[in-house]
Amino acid sequence: MGRRATAAALALVLLVASSPAWARPAVDRRELLGGSVRGRAIRVWERGVPSTTTVLVIGCVHGDECAGVKITDLLLEGQPASFVDLWVVRNLNPDGRAAGTRGNAHGVDLNRNFPYDWEPLPRGRYYSGPRPLSEPESRIAAALIRRIDPDITIWFHQPLGLVDLSGGDQRIERRYARLVGLPVEQLGRYPGSASRWQNHVFPDSTAFVVELAGGALTDARARVFADAVLELVAPIRRVR
Does 18 reside within a domain? Predict the structure, then answer.
């Protein structure tokens, strides 16, 4: 490449790097992250503008608590927003959802399988697995979080109908609760939970649990939760 072409290419790189978020092209893509114990695909969607506020939303962690998938589906509709880099995992536990069980195909509660404060909980509803990150699903989630370093992560669960003060920035947790009309509580600090691990490993980010009510969500209620994700992050700007 000649000197003039090299200078032109460098100028283009500097222009893109310095351009405001609204001037950068939005992305709308899907990526295969890996497979479950039974080989079912686990995918992530990225929508929005990279290098803006990064938000990760997980619709289903426990296979018998998957109402949040309806919220993630709404987040995948329409045009990507220009003020957020939104990452969406519809279902982290496809085997559990297919079987209607909390755990994955090994019977492991994925929300007890993360490394921070892990304990060897016995087989049963809250079985934590033989070791931290023993399960492909939890390894997939941990690898994604390490890779994209989200500013905010929302984990949807059921059926308590509240927002858990999960150890991140309470202003963010309380704001989301106000936007969706749920009370806030501090639930128990369970060993090996995904949000506790994330808040410990990434102290500048906020991961929190939203406990939806039991049963299916109405279309209108799901829209409230989806819209609140974008409304929550619109005023947040973090220089990365």
Answer: no
* Exposure string over 76-91, b if 16+ CB within 10 A, otherwise e: eeeebbebbbbbbbbb
Tell whether 51 is covered by a domain: yes
Extended strands (E) in the chain: 27-35, 41-48, 53-58, 84-89, 152-157, 160-164, 184-185, 206-213
C-alpha distances (whole Å) from 79 to each of 3, 25, 38, 49, 69 are 40, 12, 33, 11, 19
Beta-carbon neighbour count of residue 158 at 10 Å?
A: 19
13: in domain:
no
In the numeric block, which tokens belong to residue 190? 């369970």
Q: Which domain holds residue 60?
A: 26-233
What pLDDT score was predicted for residue 188?
A: 83
Segments of the chain with pLDDT less than 50:
1-19, 238-240
pTM of the model: 0.89
User: pLDDT tens-digit profile of 79-94?
Assistant: 999 999 999 999 999 9
Residue where the block lists tokens 């059926």: 159
Exposed / middle / buried, residue 16 (Cβ in 10 Å: 0-12, 13-18, 19+): exposed
How many domains does the chain contain in total?
A: 1
Q: What is the CB neighbour count within 10 angstroms for residue 202?
A: 17
CATH number of residue 168's parent domain: 3.40.630.10
pLDDT of residue 193: 97
pLDDT at 189: 86
- Decide if 5 is inside a domain: no
